[in-house]
Amino acid sequence: MPHSTLPSSRIERYRSALEPLAKAFDLVNDYVVITDADAHILYVNRAIVRHTGFRVDEVLGKNPADLWGGRMPRAFYEELWRNIKEKRKPFATEVCNTTRKGRDCWHDLHISPVLDAKGEVELFIAIEPSINDRKRKERFREEFASVIGHESLSPATAIRWMIEWLAENGNLNNRQKKKLHEIYAQHRRLVDMINDLLFLSRLGRGYPAQEEVDLAAELHGILKSKRHQFPRVTFTLTATPESQSFLVHSYRSLVAQLLSIPLEEASLSLRKQTGTVTATLKKTAEGYRFECTVARAGLRPDPGSARMTTARMIARYIGWHVPERRNRKKEVTWQLTIPPAAATRHL
Predict the structure, then answer these.
(1) Is 278 exposed, middle or buried (0-12, 13-18, 19+ CB in 10 A)?
(2) For 2-16, 146-160, 169-183, which range has the lowest pLDDT when averaged over its residues?
(3) What pTM was computed for the model?
């Protein structure tokens, strides 16, 4: 149930008193909220307007729980209120808020009561630094632990040794050796992916530094490899505009995984039949967009493959939009959007 709203006349009485604080808090990039003793908003800084999408006139006089709050369990808010209102003590914790568009955002919440001359609560001041990056990494670790164990490299290593032994001692003909070489190359990609995930599960400790990566150049190399892996499939690449470099600053190995997985999904959906896989790279208002489309009647893509689960985890970790798959009558498109921030600054 929504909380009561403070009349505008009472808000105005606080404006002059809060004006000096407002000028300072507007320079801060963290959320800053000032409420009265009943949690009616008297002031929000520009960071809240910028990141939540709410206008100042929409929030004044209202309770934060009716706007960007209310996502935590009821017991959470009861404990918070008991500390700041009844005990009149500062309270610090982590909290999940939401933007006007419904996107979750995590913050370190610090609330302090301001007491009057009689020791009663007059105001509350809340400062909320963003911890989205940390939460994203924590969620990746949790998802990773549920998908793949640290023992995964043991069987992977055993398979590699077996393949190498067969290549040297298996008395194979040229056709068999070529097939074994393809299996070995695929296996190496799997081991590389496992290594990437293991590094990320440790939050990047010991991982190679981020670098500038040209998506178009990376795709050319990946497609060359895929043509050997899937000889029945015709691969094409279109970049719009052709003269532009599609540069991002990220982990090269993870970028390669994210571009490679949809291409492999598309190729495998053909079930060893001939077909065409089209890769498209374009610049849009939302950032760079990579699309991978396969066209053939009777396609049977795997809706929950481990490869796409891995791609979604990696995308969340490096701050890209989660890959989507769109099914049409005779074609399937995998779409990956790289937000503008990834192309203009270090992640």
Answers:
(1) middle
(2) 146-160
(3) 0.48
